[in-house]
Design a protein that fits this description.
Blueprint lengths: L1 H21 L2 H42 L6 H9 L4 H24 L7 H22 L5 H26 L14 H16 L5 H12 L4 H28 L7 E2 L5 E2 L3 H7 L3 H36 L10 H5 L2 H16 L4 H9 L1 H12 L11 H20 L3 H20 L3 H4 L3 H20 L9 H8 L4 H9 L1 E3 L2 E7 L13 H19 L10 E12 L8 E11 L4 E9 L4 E13 L5 E2 L3 H8 L3
Antiparallel strand pairs: 1-2, 3-4, 4-6, 5-8, 6-7, 7-8, 8-9
Helix pairs in contact: 1-6, 1-8, 1-9, 1-11, 2-3, 2-7, 2-8, 2-9, 3-8, 4-11, 4-13, 4-14, 5-11, 5-13, 6-11, 7-17, 10-11, 15-16, 15-17, 16-17, 20-21
């Protein structure tokens, strides 16, 4: 009973954190803008897709987490599933952070009219960045639900003060003018909003990190997101209905015309409350500040998680040149976001300029990400260049529609990425883009066999090593025999060929599964001997250890079959080197493939070290 109560309490805390982290600059201030334009009906048009998109994400990730046993099942799924979307995840998060900081400067600070703005605005930006970094460093993902719980408790009195202030003053007498909701102009906004927010959470690192952590803590993801989605919906409705109340009390006079000629009213509440009592003004300031801070500290923690995981697994050479602390710190990213936000505020940009990307560019990626949750495909099967071009084209089309007041182009810009993903699924060559598990395995075998045949060349039953063939055809060539025994290079691949014998088989007659790893290990030793011939175990200052090893079995082989093991350096960073291997029979059929990660320790104290210069020099020629 106590355990069940703790889990429900955890679901409440996590639900609150979900709601506050999703109450970012876009949801916080566009709820005011859309209510200003279309009234309560417009507010519902904005709030309901937001609510459904967040809830659907929670329910689906709950299902994904339960497909496999264990508390790490969702984390493991995310690691493999997110690989093709890593850059998009990063861009999505960076834009969300920049947008939130911009919205605070543009619609909270600038309406106060503090002068000289050239002094106050950078100082305000530094305060925002410092607060976000401080809370992000102080509270990791395990503790953030508690800090957000405290912030919500601070927000509650502020909400009560604002509601009481509105109730005491009454609803007012002036009905503010609003645009009609039965024409194309309304649908030019409604369609992008519905599409963008229904699929929006799928590229948000903050939400994925929360869902993964909930599952680790044995908290129901579905329950947490039900609570969070409802709380988020209520906060949106509160902010929108406060806008309706403010407009009925004359706040419409604060609506202004922006640089595009459109009317904007995101800051009308701030302008109205700044003229009220200090209690009301302070309450609204607390409400907005909590929403902004809980987004930025969540973004900081999520970015740090994302950067650390990619720095530790990526094999790109750049990671060996840049200090690891710099690669995994979100601080440089936050500084860039702050500069972008500051420039946008100085240029008098609007929230919609940032919002365009969430209604167009990211729609295709989000939809494709949802599809990939249930349709397995190779990581490189996603048409990255095409997706980027379609997304960029959608941004341009929507932008023209927005600036020229053409609802048709706004709708087309939002539907274009969605339509392209649907086309990918149904077009005649869709089997080349999305493969099932069995098709993926067959495709890898076929591709590997074709490439191996082109490189290796010998027909079935022929010796795999050209050195043996040369020795058999002519006088004894000791150098050729030594080369064949010690392996040889074929391009970047180091190849060791031999014949499987009875000692390699099991009672059934096929090769025992453990022998494949033994063969790879022997080939690796021969590779080391070839590239580092002066390595001496007696006086070496470092040891090479195996951090991980994985192998995928494709075909079986039997005794007296000629086997070739190929191994190459796939990549490296500061700490780790990754080797790939492939095993073929004499007919160039792939028997298996896999990879292993190496780490390096000092021979004196076994402490982990960077890749030694000798190893780096030996490996760099073969990457």
């Amino acid at each position: 009973m106590a355990t069940k109560s703790r889990r429900w309490f955890g679901a409440v805390l996590w639900g609150n954190s979900v709601a506050l982290s999703w109450m970012w600059g876009l949801g916080l201030f566009f709820s005011v803008q859309f209510t200003t334009q279309f009234g309560v009906f417009g507010l519902l048009t904005f709030a309901i897709p937001n609510f459904l998109g967040l809830l659907t994400f929670g329910l689906v990730t709950h299902h994904l987490a339960r497909r496999q046993p264990g508390s790490e099942s969702l984390a493991q799924f995310f690691t493999s599933w997110s690989r093709p979307f890593r850059l998009v995840f990063f861009l999505y998060q960076v834009l969300a952070i920049a947008l939130t900081i911009f919205a605070f400067l543009r619609y909270v600070w600038q309406p106060l009219g503090l002068e000289p703005w050239l002094l106050y605005m950078p100082l305000t930006l530094l305060v925002v960045l410092a607060a976000a970094i401080l809370f992000g460093e102080e509270f990791d993902i395990k503790r953030i639900k508690f800090s957000h719980g405290v912030m919500f408790l601070l927000m509650v009195p502020a909400l009560v003060i604002l509601i009481l202030h509105a109730a005491v003053r009454g609803t007012g007498t002036m009905e503010f003018p609003k645009l009609p909701t039965n024409d194309w102009n309304y649908w030019g906004y409604a369609v992008p909003i519905i599409i963008g927010f229904l699929v929006g959470p799928w590229l948000d690192l903050q939400q994925w990190q929360r869902a993964i952590q909930m599952h680790r803590e044995r908290v129901s993801i579905a329950a947490g997101y039900w609570i969070g989605s409802v709380e988020f919906f209520l906060l949106l409705m509160f902010h929108g209905l406060m806008t309706v109340w403010a407009l009925n009390w004359g706040a419409a006079e604060h609506i202004r015309i922006g640089i595009t000629g459109h009317p904007y009213g995101q800051e009308i509440l701030m302008r109205l409350f700044s003229q009220s009592s200090p209690w009301v003004f302070g309450a609204y300031g607390i409400f907005v500040s909590v929403c902004v801070l809980t987004t930025l500290d969540s973004g900081y923690i999520a970015l740090r998680w994302f950067l650390q995981s990619n720095a530790s697994t990526s094999n790109h050479p750049i990671f060996s040149l840049v200090p690891n602390r710099l690669l995994t710190s979100p601080i440089p990213v936050f500084l860039v976001c702050g500069i972008v936000a500051l420039a946008g505020a100085l240029l008098r940009f609007e929230l919609e300029f940032f919002m365009i990307f969430y209604a167009t560019f990211f729609v295709g990626y989000s939809t494709l990400a949802i599809v990939r949750c249930y349709l397995v495909s190779r990581a490189n099967a996603i048409p990255q260049v095409k997706m980027f071009c379609i997304g960029s084209l959608a941004v341009v089309i929507f932008s023209y529609g927005y600036f020229l007041r053409s609802p048709f182009f706004q709708i087309v810009g939002s539907l274009l990425p969605l339509g392209y993903v649907l086309w990918l699924l149904v077009k005649p060559s869709s089997s080349e883009e999305f493969l099932s598990d069995k098709e993926e395995l067959d495709a890898q075998v076929s591709d590997a066999a074709s490439s191996a045949g082109a490189v290796m060349g010998p027909p079935s039953g022929a010796p795999a090593s050209a050195a043996f063939a040369a020795a058999a055809a002519g006088p004894l060539d000791l150098a050729a025999i030594a080369n064949s025994l010690g392996g040889h290079f074929e391009g970047k691949w180091f190849v060791h060929s031999f014949m499987a014998t009875y000692a390699d088989t099991n009672s059934v007659g096929n090769v025992y599964f453990g022998m494949y790893a033994m063969w790879v290990g022997k080939t690796r030793e021969l590779f080391f001997n070839r590239v580092m011939p002066k390595f001496n175990l007696k006086n070496t200052p470092f040891y090479i250890l195996t951090r991980s090893f994985e192998h995928k079995f494709v075909r079986e082989t039997r005794e007296f079959e000629t086997v070739s093991v190929k191994i190459r350096v796939a990549g490296y960073n500061r700490k780790f080197a990754t080797l790939e291997h492939e095993i073929y029979d004499s007919a160039a059929h792939m028997l298996g493939r896999g990879k292993q990660t190496l780490l390096f320790v000092s021979s004196s104290d076994y402490k982990m070290i960077d890749i030694p210069p000798d190893v780096y020099t030996a490996f760099i020629a073969h990457t």
